[in-house]
């Protein structure tokens, strides 16, 4: 299955082209505030470099969150547009599960963390075998509250683990294991494995139901609730 996978959930965007279990190409770039302007040209460049017309793709995968609200919307809108135009299916997957997939067959549970700002992290805890299996549901939580609920050796990965490393290490001591720096960046190539599994299981939603999963209210939603 020729699959194009997109992740725009953090400040490092990535796109990957795979053919079954074989990875063909992957681009990573920092879009700043121009993800919407840079994503489609990057996809065109990747496909051109691989010599593959978009019509020959069999499907698409995309990270649906959590992460940057704007980034997630850009990635989903782009993939849904490409899927609609090409008539090919698209599946979504958790951005944090994709991050945890950087550590397959880990000896301990993996706590994938994105910095959610406002003193919180987006957190998901997984048992990582060939694919990550959720142990604790994804949520937005203060890092101190998160680590106070951990009582076994756990591997921390992601920019949230980097930002709150001192707090995590102080509270957990030897129970805290930190992933190598190279594992802290989510990659579309890891997400492609999750997307391929979703296709294999027939977990293919109608395009209108492929939506963001933020795990936290936006500032606009908070303001509306406060005003009501």
Automatic annotation (TrEMBL):
One of its GO terms (biological process) is tRNA threonylcarbamoyladenosine modification. Gene3D superfamilies: 3.30.420.40. CDD domains: ASKHA_NBD_TsaB. Coiled coil: none annotated. Signal peptide: none annotated. GO terms for cellular component: cytosol. Residues 36-127 form the Gcp-like domain. InterPro entries: ATPase_NBD, Gcp-like_dom, T6A_TsaB. It comes from the Bacteria. Pfam families: TsaD. This is tRNA threonylcarbamoyladenosine biosynthesis protein TsaB. It comes from Geobacter argillaceus.
């Amino acid at each position: 299955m020729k699959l194009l996978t997109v992740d725009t959930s953090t400040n490092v965007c990535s796109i990957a082209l795979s053919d079954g279990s074989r990875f063909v190409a992957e681009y990573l770039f920092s879009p700043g505030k121009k993800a919407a302007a840079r994503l489609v040209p990057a996809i065109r460049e990747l496909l051109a470099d691989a010599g593959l017309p978009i019509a020959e793709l069999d499907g698409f995968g995309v990270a649906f969150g959590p992460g940057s609200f704007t980034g997630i919307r850009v990635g989903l809108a782009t993939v849904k547009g490409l899927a609609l135009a090409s008539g090919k299916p698209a599946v979504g997957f958790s951005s944090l599960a994709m991050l945890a997939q950087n550590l397959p067959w880990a000896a301990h549970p993996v706590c994938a963390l994105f910095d959610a700002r406002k003193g919180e992290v987006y957190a998901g805890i997984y048992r990582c075998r060939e694919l990550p299996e959720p142990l604790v549901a994804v949520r937005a939580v203060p890092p101190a509250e998160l680590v106070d609920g951990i009582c076994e050796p756990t591997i921390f990965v992601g920019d949230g683990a980097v930002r709150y490393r001192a707090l995590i290490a102080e509270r957990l001591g030897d129970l805290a294991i930190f992933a190598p720096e190279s594992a802290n960046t989510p990659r579309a190539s890891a997400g492609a494995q999750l997307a391929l599994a979703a296709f294999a299981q027939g977990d293919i939603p109608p395009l209108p139901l492929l939506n963001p999963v933020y795990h936290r209210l936006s500032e606009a939603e908070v303001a509306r609730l406060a005003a009501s």
